[in-house]
Amino acid sequence: MNAPPIPAVSPAISVVIPTHNRARSLGHVLEALSALQHEIEGLEVVVVDDGSTDDTLAYLDGRDWSLDLKVLSQAQSGVAVARNQGARTATAPVLVFIDDDVTPAAGFLAAHARVHDDTPGAVSIGRLAPSDDPDAQPPGWWRWLEWQFEKQYADIESGERTLDGISLYSGNFSLPADLFWQVGGFDETVRYCEDAELGLRLEQAGASFRLATSATGHHSGYRSFQSWRDAAYRGGFWDSEQMLKMRKVYSLGDLVKGFQNRHRVLRVVADAVLGRPRLYNLTIKAMRSVAFSAGLLRLRSLERYAYGGIYDLTYWHGLCDGLGGFSLLQRYIRDPRKLEAAA
């Protein structure tokens, strides 16, 4: 995939936003960007409508956004295709990718720009924060995800977690345009986890990653419970694919260690239900009932624990399906000495 020519003059940053049937949410994002454009020397915004069936295009055309705004349209082809199309149209040396439900906060553009001024060639990963709408009512599984993001940021800042390609979330990140095209942009054949897949290629190309918590975007688009679980399953399945392809230094030992680091209760439950579809589904339903009841009673720690357990079980379900079943992991989980002998 060839990089488009980039002029030597402004804008300094091009923000690329794929969108699908979220006209009003997208409007909030554009309004925020308009209010923040003073933070950098020049801003360009490229919106790519990915086959919307609502009034997105008419909505965008019917307002003066006070932005250097380019609007593209394509038949629905997925976010990877949409982001690449937007990047081809962008003219700035730095690309910022955000989603149509991530509203930039004050300092967003300046923080991304600062990373690229201080560390040329770096990939800047911004913060996905909860919605700043005081009336927002995220469901319990989304509160768990918001808490999980904040924990990850804290772990990265404390050095307990490594910031690498797997940490790349497409909802809020930036990088030099030439680096993006050097690795080929988003892989348009990837069905899911296309952002982490790009992150892996950037890591393998020697890119450095920087966490820019001041580049805050408020995430307001809440997934359904099933969609949230589908993402967990796909994440596990994708991880198994990467291990089998040797795309990252995954090993059976890494997977077993990750399992053994979970709470003992969850390990016992996983050992009992994975590979047994009926029992697995009943367990997920029971855990959801606990999580829902805890949410009603505002028992947030119990709510988080229950939804975290659901997410982990679903992730491990996807991982084991990708590897061909849970029995292989069980063999080593039950007797770590076998893992040492196989290493």
CATH class of the largest domain: Alpha Beta
Query: Element order, helices and strands?
Result: EHEHEHEEHEHEHHEHHHHHHH
**Radius of gyration in whole Å, from Cα?**
21 Å
Task: Tell me what the CATH architecture of the largest domain is.
Answer: Alpha-Beta Complex
Q: Strand content of the residues, in percent?
A: 15-25%
CATH superfamily of the largest domain: Spore Coat Polysaccharide Biosynthesis Protein SpsA, Chain A
Report the strand count.
Answer: 8
The global form is: globular
Structural class given helices, strands, pairing? Answer: alpha/beta
What is the count of structural domains?
Answer: 2
Work out the helix count.
14
Q: Helicity, in percent?
A: 40-55%
What is the average per-residue confidence, as pLDDT, rounded to a whole number? Answer: 89
Main sheet, how many strands, which sense, barrel? 8 strands, mixed
Q: Summarize this, please?
A:
The protein is α/β, with parallel strands linked by helices. It has helices at 23-36, 56-61, 79-89, 108-118, 140-158, 177-182, 194-204, 225-245, 252-260, 264-273, 277-296, 300-323, 327-334, 336-342, and strands spanning 13-19, 43-50, 69-74, 94-98, 102-104, 123-130, 172-176, 209-219. An eight-stranded mixed β-sheet has the order 3-2-1-4-7-6-8-5.
Write up what this structure looks like.
- The chain is built from 14 helices and eight strands.
- It has 343 residues and is α/β, with parallel strands linked by helices.
- The chain folds into two domains: 13-222, Spore Coat Polysaccharide Biosynthesis Protein SpsA, Chain A, CATH 3.90.550; 226-342, no CATH class.
- An eight-stranded mixed sheet has the order 3-2-1-4-7-6-8-5.
- α5 (140-158) packs across α12 and α13 (327-334) packs across α14 (336-342).
- The longest helix is centred in the last third of the chain and has 24 residues, at 300-323.
- Mean pLDDT is 89; it is low at 5-9.
